[in-house]
Design goal:
single chain; 520 residues; mainly alpha; 2 domains; two-stranded antiparallel ribbon; 2 strands; globular; disordered N terminus
């Protein structure tokens, strides 16, 4: 029998109080992430640190890969979940406090280097990028600090789910708690827009303060004993051995491979959209991108309706097709900065995410035997948010792995936007000092697009043509993967209708390997 102090404190609380506390936790958790992650590329690009964007974003999937191991070996066995989460958020917040300081130093070095190279007549995009990669020590330290913060943050996604599932009166209340995470991400983006911080290093200060606030708040959450306390170490479960056996099913193998591959073009959206929108004339890209999360909530409500009528294969194909369309809209909207095309591309995020990922999680839950559903969900997160996104960010930035080039291109499509440093400097100079405007007027900029009249038309045309070629690469990748999936996936398994939140109830409670998805 468990000791009294090992019982969740939530059992002594009013259920309504529990839901409010957990909703606030979810809100702060995703606010702290959304405050900086989505527009980090715009801030780094504006400050001439574009060469480090790929490595900075690749830190997220690395942390996502190691998070389940930390949870399974340490957090879920020895310490109360709310205290581990509080400790990690406090440490992560302290690390984040150093990020804007180091980033400012790295940008100062980059600016001085660019000026010196221009004076010597040696400035080219390739030469500047090579010099920054080899000589900008602060830039490399910046990447390590972001990795350190994310290594603290990623385990909290699973811990937050554990705290919620351990204390809510019934699991059908989880969706309305989890939706506050998406709301937190939206509010973070709108806050950046209202404050005019989308392309500023102030995003890191906001992320640091909100992380520290959540760290303190966690110690007031219901007591949640370690869920695996006293249980023997199960390396078979931790390493997802049984879940990998699902690959013997040809349809699940096709689904797993295509899910991994589709996350490669997905990384282009997360890693470059804010910088692209800023170049295209959206002054507050952070606020603009929240349109995607708003559509995510809308389409989440429609999942039960479409799922009953379309089935797994058609739902996933629609999700993939939306990714192709999104990148095509970005590509052909770039040359003339066509506002409606760019906003529609952002709004498609709801279909891209819900129709593919939510359906994928439900399909995985259906295919896996009850005893290994947690492993199966963990495997899907590992393949998509870990492996797929890692290679996606590397390919997006034209990086390499152990010296092996990963600059996947299709002729001119997928090549880097080499004029970005020069264009970013010119755009900043042309805009000059921002005028003081009200909060409401700032928020209206999420829908408006304009470029300063003093911008060099030839530089603008060159940069936007390069962006067009850049976005056509993930469009081609997503189209190829969609075609492969459509031809090879023929699973006729019927999934039960999803009504009144049942689809969420069927998702397994987090265990050693399934610790929640790594996205808002």
């Amino acid at each position: 029998m468990s000791e009294p102090n090992d019982s969740p404190a939530g059992s002594l609380m009013n259920p309504r109080t529990i839901v409010r506390l957990l909703s606030a936790m979810m809100f702060l958790q995703f606010f702290a992430w959304g405050a900086w992650f989505a527009t980090m590329n715009a801030a780094m690009d504006a400050k001439l640190l574009g060469v480090f964007i790929g490595d900075a974003y690749a830190a997220a999937p690395i942390a996502a890969i190691f998070a389940p191991l930390f949870l399974g070996l340490v957090a879920d066995r020895f310490f109360p979940s709310e205290k581990v989460m509080g400790f990690l958020m406090l440490v992560g917040g302290l690390i984040m406090l150093a990020v804007p300081v180091v980033a400012t130093s790295a940008s100062q070095f980059a600016t001085e280097s660019a000026a010196a190279m221009r004076e010597a007549g040696t400035f080219t995009a390739d030469a500047f990028a090579a010099q920054q990669a080899s000589e900008n020590a602060s830039g490399r330290l910046l990447v390590w600090l972001i990795l350190g913060h994310l290594l603290c943050y990623m385990p909290t996604l699973g811990l937050g789910n554990t705290i919620a599932f351990s204390n809510i009166p019934s699991q059908d209340q989880f969706p309305k708690i989890r939706v506050w995470g998406t709301i937190g991400w939206i509010v973070a983006g709108l806050t950046l827009g209202a404050l005019g911080w989308s392309a500023s290093y102030n995003i890191f200060w906001l992320g640091a303060v909100s992380s520290l606030l959540l760290g303190v708040f966690c110690f007031f959450l219901p007591h949640t004993p370690p869920p695996l306390k006293g249980q023997p170490m199960d390396m078979r479960s931790l390493l997802m051995v049984d879940a990998f056996k699902l690959m013997a099913d040809r349809n699940f193998l096709v689904f797993a491979i295509c899910s991994t591959l589709i996350c490669i073009p997905l990384a282009f959206y997360y890693g470059m959209t804010a910088a692209f929108l800023t170049h295209a004339g959206f002054a507050e890209a952070g606020a603009t991108m929240t349109i995607g999360q708003m559509s995510e909530i809308f389409f989440m409500l429609l999942i039960p309706f479409f799922f009953r009528r379309l089935g797994v294969k058609m739902m996933i194909l629609i999700g993939m097709a939306a990714w192709v369309l999104r990148y095509v809209l970005f590509a052909f909207g770039a040359p003339d900065q066509i506002t409606w095309m760019l906003l529609l591309a952002v709004a498609l995020h709801g279909i891209c995410y819900d129709f593919f990922f939510v359906t994928g999680f439900m399909y995985t839950d259906q295919k896996a035997p009850r005893a290994i559903r947690g492993q199966a969900q963990g495997l899907l997160v590992f393949l998509t948010q870990g492996v797929g996104m890692f290679f996606g960010y590397r390919i997006m930035a034209g990086g390499n792995l152990f010296g092996i080039p990963l600059n996947l291109t299709f002729g001119p499509y997928g090549q880097q936007v080499t004029s970005a440093p020069t264009y970013s400097e010119a755009l900043t100079a042309a805009r000059g000092t921002a005028e003081e405007i009200g909060v409401f007027e700032s928020l209206t900029k999420m829908f408006s697009q304009s470029l300063p009249s003093g911008l060099d038309p030839e530089l603008l045309s060159t940069t936007m043509e390069q962006w067009k070629n850049f976005w056509l690469s993930p469009a081609i990748m997503a189209a190829i993967i969609m075609l492969i999936f459509g031809l090879l996936f023929w699973d006729r398994t019927r999934t039960a209708p999803v009504e009144n939140g049942e689809g969420f109830d069927n998702l397994p409670e987090p265990d050693d390997t399934a610790k929640g998805d790594a996205r808002a």
